[in-house]
Amino acid sequence: MLDAEYWNKKFEVDEYIYTKDVNRFVKEFGTEIIANRPVGKMIDLAGGEGRNSVWFAEHGWQAEIIDFSRAALTKALALAEERGVADKYFAHVADATGFESVLTPVDVGLIAYLQVSNEDLFDALDTLIENIKPGGYLLGVWHARENLTEGFGGPQDLNILPTASEVREFLESQPVQIEVLENREGQIQTREGLKPSTTLVLRAKHL
Fold it and tell me: Where are the domains positioned within the chain?
């Protein structure tokens, strides 16, 4: 799953695998942020098919999506065009653990469902935080490790399913103040219908 070609093949289908709808937790946190600050700029790191960053662009924000899958970014750009926000939308191919942003510094840095080891995840978070301006926000959404025993969803590999305590320990060394870091209950669609799933969510403010 760490190989770009794996994801290119996964995304090279007509339908949007993860839908065109913004993630519920991104929408929750994003709505609060948008309501309380001027229109700004954001980075959607490992943003896949673009559903979350396009949502920000629809609210007037400049949005940059970064992903190592060209197939995913092609669909993200098509979605931005479909929603009429292509003039506010930027995309480039890069690895999440080492990238350069065209919009830095940004008001929001988002990382949602990046499926890598904790070591790589923390490298990605470190780089993302460097691109967020003081007073801006870091948002995170992941499949929680608890799904291995208590729910469904995400890769069945404990090495790439973070816990709240692990993320908290890493962020203690970063210039951020954690506002929300917790597991939330949710549901995912499976072949057998909706199943309970646990999602780890993060909102932190850059100091």
Answer: 4-206
Contacts 24+ apart (CB under 8 A), 80-85: 80/50, 80/54, 83/54, 83/57, 83/58, 85/54, 85/57, 85/58
What is the per-residue pLDDT for 107? 98
Alpha helices in the chain (DSSP H): 4-11, 24-35, 51-58, 70-82, 118-130, 147-150, 164-171
Burial of 119 (0-12, 13-18, 19+ CB in 10 A): exposed
- Cα torsion through 193, 18, 153, 68, rounded to 10: 160
d(CA 55, CA 61): 9
Q: Which residues contact 202 (CB under 8 A, 6 or more apart)?
A: 138, 139, 140, 141, 167, 178, 180, 181
Rounded CA-CA distance 167/117 in Å is 12
pTM of the predicted model over 0.70: yes
Distance CA 107, CA 56 (A): 11
What residues contact 165, with CB distance under 8 A and at least 6 apart? none
Name the 3-class secondary structure at 178: strand
pLDDT digits (tens, 9 = 90+) for 107-151: 999 999 998 999 999 999 999 999 999 999 999 999 999 888 876
Token readout for 13 is 């289908």
Specify the CATH superfamily of domain 4-206: Vaccinia Virus protein VP39 (3.40.50.150)
Q: What is the DSSP letter of 160?
A: G
How many other C-beta atoms are found inside a 10 Å radius of the C-beta of residue 59? 17
